[in-house]
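Input:
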Amino acid sequence: MARRYDSSTTTFSPEGRLHQVEYAIEAINNAGTSVGILAKDGVVMCSEKKITSGLLAPSRTSEKTYKLCPHATCSVAGLTADANILIDQARLRAGRYAYQYQEPVPIENLVEHVCNYKQAYTQYGGLRPFGVAFLFAGYDEMHGFQLYQSDPSGNYSGWKATVIGANNQAGKSLLKTDYGTSKKVEEEGGDEMKTDDAPEVIEMPDLAEACRLAVKVLNKTMDGAVASPDKLELFTMSLDEDGNCVHKILTEEEAKAVIEEVDAETAAAGDT
Amino acid sequence: MDTVFGVSYNGGVVLATDQVNARSILMYQQNLDKIAELSSHSAMGVSGPNSDLVNFSEYVSKNLQLYELSNDGMKLSTHAQANYCRGELAKALRKGPFQVNIILGGYDEKTPTGGSLYVMDYMGSCVKANYGAQGYASNFCLSIMDRDWDEGLTEDQAVKIVEKCIKELGMRFLINQSNFILKVVDKEGVRTVKCDADPADN
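Output:
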């Protein structure tokens, strides 16, 4: 049905869709899952590492998490080769901004720049879009810690918690119920059914809580395969006492500790 | 030939320039405002040929305005604005230099004294200083500022130092500059405190 309108990025379909962009978004749904969670005192990004072959040489660098500048890191879902180009762009932008203004680039500025670059491939040149979705975690003075998601269309939005990659819908629905301590303000009527327009108060988790929630989400998206340190990569961003950003990928022992805490929590919940 | 100076104090900066616009033996006007307002809380005093003065100050102020529009109203700090200016001067140097020497002053909440002053020249050098003077005026005025400037100055004290410098120039500088304009940049923004000849007056 869409056959005639889907081979060129620069053509709208009669329904007003850009099929190439949509197909690019589809491609990411086969990639390793990445969950991002905004905490009071930092950002957590947890990614699934897809081990394709036991013969692969152990990598010194990550295939999911990349540092962009002293105060921003991104997580990738999709075609790694495409991602490398965009990561270079982001790093250049952050560096050039710092050179020009002698100040760290505001995170939204950085994200928008990368997204504008992606958008160009949906409008002109006859080249295909980038098959990558990103989670950007960053800190700036004006807005504190932030989490952004972007996709091949060049759209981006800020999130408190989100998931990209395989099974992201399942992950997102879990986040919806479990993110933040939600306290519903009840009307004066008493015990009647809570109405939908009762305001919900969401309290941001702290970094440790966010880590546990991230592992919980990955447990769900990884089709019941038990999370273990070699299958996932836990990244956290926080500030040290001097106010500098700390980018940390948890070691095997640290990740194991978090996984065990989550397993204990789930077991306890299952018993009631 | 232009006189530009600036003195920072506890709570802001004061910038001053003469108001002469002349070339060779001809005096075009005596009421030029050489202090360009860059943003709500920053301004720069510019010396040099009128063409470059206007061209550069408008280029910088419009680009800073564009930044605010493109970034959701976010203001650049004085430090960032000064480094932006410096970068533009440095880029232009080996192409078509802006023959301007500037003193940029601004107010930021987060800095210890609030005010900060940056002294730049047409080659793209930039230094943060407590006070500064560009042009021939520096020969007469820097020594006065060296002697009288101190930490914790009030606005009145800073303006008094500037007036002392102007008096010295009146007495010893060969070129007669009778009109000066003084602007203060503080928490409230940029405002003119003294203007010997109204720039709008033709």
